[in-house]
Design brief:
By secondary structure, the chain is an alpha/beta fold. It contains three helices and nine strands; from the N terminus they run βαβαβββαββββ. The strands form two sheets. It has a six-stranded mixed sheet with strand order 4-3-2-5-6-7, sandwiched between helices. It has a three-stranded antiparallel sheet with strand order 1-9-8. The longest helix has 19 residues. It is globular. The two termini are 13 Å apart. The structure holds inosinic acid and magnesium ion. Magnesium ion (MG) binds next to strand 5.
């Protein structure tokens, strides 16, 4: 098994504090309306699992799409592949699109553009981590919980070559 050095970046306590704040702001935003969460697998699994347990269960539906741009290549970005989007019915619904990390923005921008064309009642984009980098696109998420530098991170759902998703904290990895 390959060994990597990991440096703690965000503690479990800090993550949970941000998730609790986000759930409160979403409760305020949607009031008593129903909304559909579309989670981007697999990286957002821990974030969404924690978040939905702090939202009113009767108001929330859940769907997922799969996106991958790294796969087994590790930290080297490849072609963006999206699966499962066509089947989701979003017309006239309040849609909350959730991803783990906003990096170049390509994933979220492409998904948001596709979803908007299907005429949801409204679309809100939420990410757990926002990388502070220079970007080509002016597209930004509507809500980002934690800003980080331009470093490759793992944990709390986020992987390096499919490993390390199970950490309760987020670490910087040096491959
Ligand atoms: P973007 O399309 O460049 O914004 O990339 C977003 C996707 O790339 C995220 O959904 C993550 O799955 C993945 N990604 C970006 N940065 C990292 C990282 O530091 N570690 C692991 N995955 C990452
Ligand atoms: Mg992802």
């Amino acid at each position: 098994m390959e060994k990597h050095s990991l440096r703690l970046l965000i503690s479990e306590e800090e993550i949970q504090k941000k998730v609790a704040e986000a759930s409160q702001s979403l409760i305020q935003k949607y009031q008593d309306q129903e909304f559909l969460i579309i989670m981007i697998m697999k990286g957002s699994i821990c974030f969404v699992a924690d978040l939905i347990r702090q939202l009113p269960p009767e108001q929330v539906s859940l769907e997922f799409v799969r996106c991958s741009s790294y796969g087994k290549r590790g930290t080297q970005k490849g072609q963006l592949v999206i699966e499962g989007l066509e089947k989701i019915d979003v017309k006239d619904r309040h849609v909350l699109l959730i991803d783990d990390i906003f990096d170049t923005g390509d994933t979220l921008e492409e998904l948001a553009t596709f979803l908007r064309a299907k005429q949801p009642k409204d679309l809100w984009t939420l990410v757990l981590l926002f990388k502070r980098i220079k970007r080509k696109t002016s597209f930004l998420p509507d809500q980002a919980l934690i800003e980080i530098g331009d470093e490759f991170v793992v944990g709390y759902g986020v992987d390096y070559k499919e490993r390390y998703r199970g950490f309760k904290e987020i670490y910087v990895i040096t491959p």
